[in-house]
Design brief:
- The complex is a heterodimer of chains A (about 625) and B (about 240).
- In chain A, about 40% of the residues lie in helices and about 25% in strands.
- With about 625 residues, chain A is an alpha+beta fold.
- In chain A, strand 11, helix 5 and strand 12 form a beta-alpha-beta unit.
- In chain A, helix 13 packs antiparallel against helix 15 and helix 15 packs antiparallel against helix 16.
- Chain B is mainly alpha-helical and about 240 residues long.
- Chain B folds into two domains: about 100 residues, Helix Hairpins; about 90 residues.
- Classes of the chains: A alpha+beta (about 625), B mainly alpha (about 240).
- At the A-B interface, strand 19, strand 23 and strand 24 of A face helix 2 and helix 3 of B.
Chain lengths: ~625, ~240
């Protein structure tokens, strides 16, 4: 079993790529079936696969089976991992107390989650979810699936995008494209509903908020501007309501402290209430505490007052995006709602007020992103008949730290991608053989106020007097919105080698190692499964054999019985061992040894059964069987 | 030597065949690298480099070239082709961005003619020096007023803001008027005039950003720069 990753990999099957919406709360996988984008349901029949992973002793659960453990074993159940992708510990400090599983990290480096004495990086956890989606697709399509388009919030920075791409790789997928969620939604919506015009996509999901403004014309979907908040979503509304409920519980003297499981139970109740209040004016919240139920009535008006400011936070990015696009609300032809949180009446009202038109949600707001991703996957795999093209943009400005701590901007935000900029570097000290470049994203004047992306070391420069070397560094943001850096020595014309140290991410070497480790453990996981299966089957055969042996004297000679006992002993020995193929072999042997005995027992059983029935009954039974 | 023989040749990085610069190798049909040193106009297929441009036509060129060279079209090809398509697309997108906005378009042509325009050291337009100093002082007052700025100060700054925005529009119109003249007969004089307009506009825009951040409080930590006195300025009494 070798690495099957690569462009045009050695598979004889027709190419097929799936679209994956890797969401904060729920994920979906979709593909284009007979020219129609279609979501594939999970093992429970639902299209939404919870983005939850639970580690239960030796077993790993993902999706809906994992979600059940959220309330009973919160410490070992990881959810909302998307909020941790591409981040350092300082970024998530404010919400550490709300997450029940153990998170660690220090300074400016990738965060890790600690479960059962093992540490996992967010891409590794996301990879487990992606593996589940891959499995769901393969089961439905009855073939291997190795290519995928994975969506991300449009406002995701470079580190967050790279982390998503790494997760795909760790899951055994060739990621054809990292696609922006609003663009995917526009694609699904545009192919279906609006052929030409200016669309605003308002995407309010579980953990992130995006607003994108696109122009659709001549089959080209051109993103004009994008803005958002990668830390604003339905989760925050749940948290707000949870905190409020906890305050109420304390106020009424029911409890003072809440353990991990209880916190999750309250959170679960809050989420349910939120969903209820989207279609009803009031609801009764019921929280099981110990052996009593804490009941609290909540109406929509009070709920909206409680969370109104969170929804209000989505308005500023909308205004900024309009400004960047050089447009006013009147210029927008359609507003498309995406994401579960847009089901809230308060959200719909605020969007309508800002854009001065009724927003559309014809396509299922939970599924539209996955459907769009499937369309793009179909195009990139070369299997599509669509003549559309997506011209997307980078959401954040990119620059380098200059001597003195300033930030020199190289690429402006909202630039159409791919895009590139070049800078020339030289040495400051005689004999200097390497130059460091610190790359950042953001629009602030000082480097320290922007988001550190990575440090690049230009290595192997020939030693010479300071100021003589001339290295041209090209910063290119590719179609995924991810930075690629190449460097060329202008004196020799040769490509310069670059060492990349991502600030909040994994190096290529780290990802490769994780991949190899997971493949090794995949082998041993697989073997472990096979062993368990073989032992179970052996147990069944041994029990049946013992039962049959009680009547052995009726049918078998002493030698024949001896042969069975010998085969039985060999199987018991194999059962104690670790090799599943040996167990299987011994099961086969025992089966053969007991054939005569089994036949004998069966014959007498039938004979007895026949003797106990009258001839007439037998005839009637025979007739019934024939006419079935 | 015949003129056609002196034409630049390009070597296909995929199959090694030599050819004149076209988009795809005549031998193996794979995408060829972008020719070095092309101007933004050449990248978008223009014959002449004019300051006046039809924006609808510009967009058509962007769309047509994108459909041909965007990485999405090369997702299933070799990784070298995918990389070359990225290079091509970058060149196309960069060219479109510069040529679409009349300001960056003008700056591009002027810099070709006269060399780089250093934006960071844009100087105060002399005749407005006093005005800028006054407003800068008022901005200081507002910043130091601890959230309770005097109403008169606010009014003055808001009026100044409106006036400066109008001035920017004026300058932009002035600039565009130079376009037709320059296209008729490209000359250094007009280029110099455009350079001045661009410089003045640049200064006013940066001052407007200071006003904006003071009035609306975004990015307070970014200390605005005090306008530098032009060395030869004489204060009139």
């Amino acid at each position: 079993m070798g690495l099957e990753i690569g462009i045009g990999s050695a598979t004889k099957e027709k190419p097929l790529a799936v679209g994956i919406d890797l969401g904060t709360t729920n994920s979906l996988v979709a593909y284009v079936k007979d020219s129609v984008p279609t979501v594939i349901p999970g093992p429970d029949g639902k299209t939404l696969v919870p983005s939850v992973v639970s580690f239960q002793s030796d077993n790993l659960f993902t999706g809906s089976t994992a979600k059940k453990f959220q309330l009973t074993d919160a410490k070992h159940t990881v959810y909302s991992i998307k909020r941790l992708m591409g981040k350092g510990i300082e970024d998530i400090r404010p919400e550490l107390s709300l997450l029940p599983y153990e998170i660690m990290g220090h300074g400016k480096e990738i965060v890790k989650i600690r479960i059962n004495n093992r540490e996992y990086t967010p891409p590794e956890i996301s990879a487990l979810i992606l593996k589940e989606l891959k499995f769901i697709a393969e089961k439905e399509l009855k073939r291997s699936v190795v290519q995928a388009v994975i969506t991300v919030p449009a406002y995701f920075n470079d580190a967050q995008r790279q982390a998503t791409k790494d997760a795909g790789k760790l899951a055994g997928l060739e990621v054809l494209r990292i696609l922006n969620e609003p663009t995917a939604a526009a694609l699904a919506h545009g192919l279906d509903k609006i052929k030409e015009g200016t669309i605003a996509v308002y995407d309010f999901g579980g953990g992130t908020f995006d607003i994108s403004i696109l122009k659709v014309k001549d089959g080209i979907f051109q993103v004009l501007a994008t803005n958002g908040d990668t830390h604003l979503g339905g989760d925050d509304i749940d948290s707000r309501l949870s905190q409020f409920l906890m305050d109420m519980i304390r106020k009424f003297g029911w409890e003072e402290e809440f353990d991990a499981n209880t916190t999750q139970v309250i959170r679960d109740a809050a989420e349910k209430a939120k969903l209820e209040l989207s279609s009803r004016e009031d609801t009764l919240i019921r929280i099981p505490l110990g052996d009593r139920n804490f009941e609290f009535p909540l109406n929509r008006t009070n709920f909206e007052a409680l969370v109104g400011d969170i929804v209000e936070r989505t308005m500023r990015p909308c205004r900024s995006a309009l400004k960047d696009a050089g447009l006013v609300p009147a210029n927008i032809d359609e507003v498309v709602l995406v994401g579960g949180s847009t089901r809230m009446p308060l959200v719909r009202q605020k969007v309508q007020d800002l854009f001065q038109r009724v927003p559309k949600s014809d396509l299922n707001p939970d599924e539209v992103v996955a459907l769009g991703a499937a369309v793009q996957a179909d195009i990139l795999a070369g299997t599509s008949t669509q003549e559309v093209l997506l011209l997307d943009i980078t959401p954040l400005s990119l620059g380098i730290e200059t001597y003195g701590g300033g930030m020199a901007k190289l690429i402006e935000r909202n630039s159409t991608i791919p895009t590139s900029a070049s800078e020339y570097f030289t040495t400051f000290v005689d004999g200097q053989t390497s130059i460091d470049v610190h790359v950042l994203q953001g629009d602030r004047e000082l480097a320290k106020d922007n988001r550190s992306l990575a440090r690049f070391a230009l290595k192997g420069i020939d030693p010479m007097p300071a100021g003589l070397p001339r290295i041209e560094v090209t910063f290119m943001i590719d179609a995924n919105g991810i930075l690629n850096v190449t460097a060329r020595d202008m004196r020799t014309g040769k490509l310069q080698s670059i060492e990349v140290k991502p600030t909040y991410g994994l190096t290529d070497e780290e990802v490769e190692k994780m991949l190899l480790d997971s493949m090794e453990s995949a082998e041993s996981d697989f073997s472990a499964r096979m062993l368990i299966d073989a032992r179970n089957d052996a147990d069944i055969v041994l029990r049946a054999t013992d039962k049959a042996l009680r009547r052995a004297d009726e049918f078998l000679t002493a030698d024949e019985q001896g042969a069975i006992l010998q085969a039985k002993k060999e199987l018991i020995d194999a059962h104690r061992g670790e090799d599943h193929s040996v167990i299987r072999e011994k099961i086969e042997r025992l089966d053969q040894a007991t054939q005569k005995l089994a036949q004998g027992i069966m014959d007498t059983t039938i004979a007895n059964a026949l003797r106990n029935k009258s001839l007439n009954e037998l005839e009637l039974e025979a007739e019934k069987t024939i006419h079935k | 030597m015949n003129k056609t023989e002196a034409v630049l040749k390009i070597v296909c990085p995929h199959c090694g065949e030599e050819s004149i610069p076209v988009d795809f190798c005549p031998e193996c049909s794979q995408i060829l690298p972008v020719s070095e040193g092309q101007s933004h106009y050449q990248v978008l297929g223009y014959d002449k480099e004019t300051l006046s441009l039809d924006l609808a036509d510009l967009e058509k060129r962007l769309f047509a070239l994108s459909k041909k060279f965007h990485p999405d079209r090369f997702a299933n090809r070799t990784s070298l082709e995918l990389q070359l398509s990225h290079d091509r697309s970058s060149a196309i997108n960069n060219a479109y961005r510069i040529l679409k906005d009349p300001i960056t378009r003008a700056k591009y042509i002027v810099e070709k003619e006269l060399g780089s325009i250093e934006e960071k050291s844009a100087k105060v337009p002399i005749e407005m020096a006093d005005f800028f100093f006054e407003i800068h002082d008022i901005l200081d007052t507002i910043r130091e007023s601890d959230g309770k700025p005097p109403e008169s100060a606010l009014q003055e700054v808001q009026t100044a803001e409106r006036d400066l925005m109008a001035k920017v529009k004026e300058l932009e119109m002035d600039l565009e008027q130079q376009f037709a003249e320059y296209d008729q007969l490209p000359n250094r004089q007009i280029a110099e005039r455009m350079k001045e307009i661009l410089s003045e506009r640049s200064y006013i825009k940066s001052f407007l950003r200071q006003i904006d951040s003071t009035l609306r409080g975004e990015g307070k930590e970014d200390e605005p720069q005090r306008p530098q006195r032009p060395q030869s300025a004489q204060r009139d009494h």
